[in-house]
Design goal:
136 residues; Jelly Rolls; 1 helix; globular
């Protein structure tokens, strides 16, 4: 049966973020069609990676979050984001998030791996290579 009785409980972003300390280890807080809505703590460097088949949406909830990306000509660019800012990395663009400390919300197809379809080098110990973990 569908309808209001099938709607999950509301989710408070601050409350969910308070339930875990892991960085770059997103928690799935909702689903929209075939997409996961995820939140994560961010601090330090992530890994250079690329998602070949999907864009990646970021909303900064708290703190600071930066994203560097590689241009097709070999150059690099970066953007620094703060609470309330959003940024979308188009599919096929190699990028590397980093943060002095913050929290982010991501919106991406279910099954999207945090370290992409391809990544450069070893995955740092503080980066969880996952498709997301359910909140419990």
């Amino acid at each position: 049966m569908t309808g209001l009785s099938s709607i999950a409980a509301k989710v408070n972003l601050t409350g969910v973020l308070a339930t875990f300390d892991d960085i770059y280890s997103p928690r799935i807080i909702g689903r929209v069609n075939d997409y996961d809505v995820k939140v994560a703590h961010a601090q330090g460097e992530h890994v250079w990676h690329v998602h070949d088949h999907t864009d990646e949406f970021f909303l900064v909830i708290d703190g600071q979050f930066a994203i560097a990306w590689r241009e097709p000509d070999g150059g690099e660019r970066a953007v620094e984001l703060h609470a309330g800012d959003i940024f979308v990395i188009p599919k096929g663009i190699e990028h590397k998030p980093s943060s002095a400390g913050g929290a982010i919300l991501m919106f991406e197809p279910s099954g999207t791996l945090t370290t992409g379809d391809r990544h450069e080098g070893d995955i740092p110990a503080h980066v969880d290579s996952t498709t997301g973990r359910d909140i419990s």
